[in-house]
Amino acid sequence: AQTVTQSQPEMSVQEAETVTLSCTYDTSENNYYLFWYKQPPSRQMILVIRQEAYKQQNATENRFSVNFQKAAKSFSLKISDSQLGDTAMYFCAFMKPYGGSQGNLIFGKGTKLSVKP
Amino acid sequence: ETGVTQSPTHLIKTRGQQVTLRCSSQSGHNTVSWYQQALGQGPQFIFQYYREEENGRGNFPPRFSGLQFPNYSSELNVNALELDDSALYLCASSFPPGTSGGASETQYFGPGTRLLVL
Q1: Three-state DSSP class for A84?
Q2: Which of A32, A65, A109, B33 is deepest in the core (most CB within 10 A)?
Q3: A80 CB contacts (<8 Å, ≥6 apart)?
Q4: Per-residue confidence (pLDDT) for residue A87, from 0 to 100
Q5: pLDDT digit string (tens) for B72-87?
Q6: Closest residue in chain B to residue A49, using alpha carbons only
């Protein structure tokens, strides 16, 4: 069974600085998808970034980028130029491709990020 | 483009009662997944619906059931409510299984329904 581990329950960063959130996962699959979702106090889970395991290039979305290390089963999220609106719970998630899954995302327990002015 | 919507936003029930939660998928999506998120935890997969049938199920008892309608909207029904059912219930929609480029694996979430069982 796949598992996702986020070892940092809480983190804080000063506005405009850079922060990195860690995620490791365990799987025997070769092809899969990894995601970072953000959940602000409003509760809605918002997709931040997606990485396909078969792509060696790290995904980027504006101020958000990942460091995907397939051999190490590591998938960290870097937030550059942190903004107050980045304050939220961040969840790392794993999914096998269809044909090998039930269509379910497997989530870590989350990291609570606070951006301080 | 309309995002995923859920109703109601909050609900209070007593133990033993039944509840129905509703979800409308994002336009262009015909697959709906339901998750339960207990306080301080990551979401746990309940089940997924595609073509009005259950397409996959997590480790939840049969008193958790669902439906999907021809317009792709979905319901989650929970019978014989227990105190531990108190949680945020999230609905997510996606493109059909097998859609290329990771589109079917990418799920977009609604705002959730907060259920409190007393």
Answers
A1: helix
A2: B33
A3: A18, A63, A64, A65
A4: 97
A5: 999 999 999 999 999 9
A6: B106
